[in-house]
Inverse folding.
């Protein structure tokens, strides 16, 4: 039987960055070194000092 190697960790592309809070790989905000997904950013943004521009 053949040996199965574990997959290599991704280093480039959309799947390489993960949200530090929930671990999802969709819509990760990397600006300012945040590495949060869109949903987590909306929950945490007021505590970080971000405001809505309206």
């Amino acid at each position: 039987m053949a040996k199965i190697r574990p997959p290599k960790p991704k280093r480039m592309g959309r799947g390489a960055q993960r949200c530090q809070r929930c671990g999802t790989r969709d819509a990760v905000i990397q600006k300012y070194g945040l590495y949060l997904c869109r949903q987590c950013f909306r929950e945490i943004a007021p505590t970080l000092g971000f405001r809505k521009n309206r």
About this structure: The beta strands are 28-29, 36-37. The longest strand covers residues 28-29. The chain has a mean pLDDT of 90. Residues 17-48 form a domain with the 30s Ribosomal Protein S14; Chain N fold (CATH 4.10.830.10).
